Amino acid sequence: MSAPIPLTLLTGFLGAGKTTLLNALLKQPAMADTAVLINEFGEVGLDHLLVERLDGDTVLLNAGCLCCTIRGDLLAALDGLWGRVLAGQRVARVVVETTGLADPAPILQTLIADPRLARRFVLDGVVTLVDAATGAATLEAQEEAQRQAAVADRLVLSKTDLVAPAVVAALAARLRVLNPVAPVLHAVAGDIAAAALLDCGPYEPAGKAPDVAGWIGAAAPQGHEHGHGHHPHHAHDVNRHDSRIQALCLEYDTPLPWQGLAGWLEMLAMTRGAAVLRMKGLLDLQGESQPVVVHGVQHLFHPPRRLPAWPPGLPRRTRLVFILRDLDPAVVRQGLEAFLKAAGDEQAIAAA
């Protein structure tokens, strides 16, 4: 079985410039053999007419209500695409462009939850486009825009040439609060190198060490302090009190017991899954020489995967990133620490 095909989710609120970006990207050699799936809101899809390279690789997903119908449409489109791959057509990667009104969670869930899909396609990352001119107002008014920014692996500011540098800087600062691990990049008229947006997930192309450092955010957010033992370092709360979406970054210097961590993740998914918009982790586990990657969306957590080796230059340390909605980060942190302590106590009893 060949390696799964990387899939990039391109999202961003209405008018952010997704189609412009896509058109510019598709002209670059790095995007050769890319299949594009476009989800258009409403009865008549226009975006697919604007993607210049409209050939057999562009599929229009028509979905009035994204939550209800997109999953079936997306599965059917990817099934059809896989049929063409089996017939010999070369597809190097897939880009799914969502409607600007979309909450990305249902699509992420579909990609993670369907085992057949997971064997064929692997989520390479979420790229969220934010309009520099209207982005601040949109983030204030639209919760979907906040979610799109919160779950991104890459945040791209469009139309930065139309507004004052101070406005761009303020918007970038607001986005870093919503999502402290995604780099904030700029693209004027869609002009950005495809390489800056690709290979940002836990995807491992043959012979290439995964860019876990880029995926999980190698640099600790401001406010991190290094600790020891099971005491995590975590960013002080820079979140605005009126925001329902908050980010939590935890780091642990010593290897963690998988039993305690897995038990806690399971409980979190079952009891508070709806509040976990995104979870990503690079784990240093007891008894494991290789790093283990976990990630999840709401109630669904991907099975843990071992990576071949620790990324060069990245110290062995557990890093967990949570994007939470209506859930106090302290509750998450305290719950994890209670489970880790219980697992440690059990080990001590067993060893006695």
From TrEMBL:
Residues 245-340 form the CobW C-terminal domain. It catalyses: GTP + H2O = GDP + phosphate + H(+). The lineage of its organism: Bacteria, Pseudomonadati, Pseudomonadota, Alphaproteobacteria, Acetobacterales. This is GTP-binding protein. Belongs to the SIMIBI class G3E GTPase family. ZNG1 subfamily. Transmembrane segments: none annotated. Zinc chaperone that directly transfers zinc cofactor to target proteins, thereby activating them. Zinc is transferred from the CXCC motif in the GTPase domain to the zinc binding site in target proteins in a process requiring GTP hydrolysis. Coiled coil: none annotated.
